Amino acid sequence: MNLFPKKSLGQNFLIDKEIINLIVETGNVKKNDLVIEVGPGKGNLTEKILEKSPKELIVIEKDLRFTEYLNSRFGERIRIIREDMMKYSFDNFRKKNIIVFGNLPYNISTQILVKWIKMKNLNNFCKKFILMFQKEVAERIIANVNTKNYGRISILSNWKFNIEKIVDIYPSSFKPKPKVDSTLLVFTPKNEFYNLKNSKNLEYITNIFFSQKRKMIKKPLKFLFKNFEDISKKLSLDLNSRPQNLDNLTYYKICDIYETLIN
């Protein structure tokens, strides 16, 4: 069977046993846990997860070659779902409080993350996500206000998640070797977060601000609100500030005001 990785699917297989062990230990899988692994490839991580004897292990894999291989390798020890992650719905797993592992294709990793962020009752769906990203993307996800990496994905991710960096991972840990370093992050859903009516509005607001992140915030505020000066006073905003100078909470408040005006 041809199991060469497909560049079009962003496939790089994790082969470093120490890193694989670290990922599984980070998940802290118990015997009554339901586990989902996204993009299992040849099943190197899958095998280690099974050693923890979870209640059930479900793998989501788009590539038919690997679903057939995984079935022959693990049989009934796993449940295989052959789906495109960007199209797959997790509605059947509501209130399951699962653990998700994912070595995400780097070309769509943030899209997949945002898909999860948009889920309602996220904290009832998942205990935690143990996910690998290109290091540059991970640095944007965990970036703090007033830093060069701070932006849309920082604000969106930290809205519903507590995020912890575990380790940087070098190209030698993969086959084939990617041209970039990777980073392992753990996302734990928050039980309490700023209540917004629609996550798409936060996406929209942050896009307006960060599409011209070197410009002063007066321009995006003026675009969004006729009474932008009143809003800037209400939120104690300096109109000469840049988008990276506003913290997460300020963006949630701006979105909140925006939602009251459009409804």
Features:
263 residues, alpha/beta, Rossmann fold, Helicase, Ruva Protein, domain 3, 2 domains, 7-stranded mixed β-sheet, two-stranded antiparallel ribbon, 9 strands, elongated
Quick gist of this model?
This protein is an alpha/beta fold and 263 residues long. It has 11 helices and 9 strands.
Describe this structure in words.
This protein is α/β, with parallel strands linked by helices. It has two domains: 7-189, Vaccinia Virus protein VP39 (Rossmann fold), CATH 3.40.50; 199-262, Helicase, Ruva Protein, domain 3 (Orthogonal Bundle). It is built from eleven helices and nine strands. The strands form two sheets. The chain has a seven-stranded mixed beta sheet with strand order 4-3-2-5-6-9-7. β3 (56-60), α3 (64-74) and β4 form a beta-alpha-beta unit. It is elongated, with a radius of gyration of 20 Å. The mean pLDDT is 91.
CATH architecture designation of the largest domain: 3-Layer(aba) Sandwich
The number of distinct structural domains comes to 2
Structural class: alpha/beta
* The CATH superfamily title of the largest domain: Vaccinia Virus protein VP39
How far apart, in Å, are the first and last alpha carbons? 55 Å
Report the top-level CATH class of the largest domain: Alpha Beta
**Percent in helix:** 25-40%
Strand content: 15-25%
Order of helices and strands: EHEHEHEEHHEHHEEEHHHH
Total strand segments = 9
Main sheet summary: 7 strands, mixed
Low-confidence stretches: none
Number of helices: 11
